[in-house]
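Kindly inspect both lines:
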Amino acid sequence: MLILFTQATRLPEAVQLPLLFIRRASITNIDSPTDSIFVVVGIAPRQNFRTAPFMLRWNSPILRQDTDPFYVVRRTTPRMRIRKARGTERPIEMPPSKPFGSSIPAIQLQGLSKTYGKGKHVVAALREINEQFPQGSFTAIMGPSGSGKSTLIQCAAGLDTPSTGKVLLGSIELNQLKEPTLTITRREQIGFIFQAFNLLPSLNARQNIELPIRLAGKAVDRGWIERIVTQAGIGDRLKQRPAELSGGQRQRVAIARALAPRPRVVFADEPTGALDTRTARAILELLRATVDEFGQTIIMVTHDPVAASFSDRVLFLADGRIVDETDEPTADAVAARLTRLES
């Protein structure tokens, strides 16, 4: 097996595989019984976040680019040894952080603004947002199309850079980190759940769940993994590959993968958008349980009032601003408020 880690500028969105945020050369003990050839691409430049990690074929044009450094990892026994293919290696240091306590929100947004374009063509996606997301809380973000929901979650997760303002993950100011350190921070402290699941098709469920931990060069906590797969209800599906799983089962694997590194916060972008009503409800119950049982912090973007009703509170966005919020939401109350925003 050959794995290439690279930093790309533009790649087709169809092959996007978020979560694999790799930028350091310390990968060991990866057990993947496949002879496939992978090209796993690190997080893309902030101004082009939708090109984030990808999996490409060996003959991909990215291998012919000469502008960005990448690392080559060859499978060996019992460890994977890394050699640099191009570029200059730089030491990566994590910023000091204070331990999380009940008094420190999981995420803080301070005067957050995001604009696109210049001069008379400038478009304000976010406007001076100040918000806190307490630890162990479940927050839903809703609003009409174009209200800034996706931009908000991308800036809060460190996938995009705000034009002004701050994003604090605990005591770490994300928008002040250099890209290598920011990448490690995302990988180790932030989880992502996407509508399209984004599982590696050549790996089974267990390998997909453990992948971010193994890529970080850390030991897998078997007890924790068993706990989350039990909570997710996929203990009997761990040896199956994504193609052998239903949509609901694949999303459960994706949720377990997001929880595996014990992130401080999990961002969910329309996690039930591709699921039928019954399966969607089961996934929402699982997300609710991760908050209640594990104390996980979840921030979810959704268009569905029923999905929002599983949260502790709902933030409503319009024209890049938070215009309202509802605690202990019900589906009817959320739907009514959303209708008024869209009218």
Q: What stands out?
A: The CA atoms of residues 74 and 340 lie 56 Å apart. Confidence is low (pLDDT under 50) at residues 1-102. Helices lie at 149-156, 179-189, 205-215, 222-232, 247-259, 277-294, 305-308, 331-342. The longest strand covers residues 123-133.
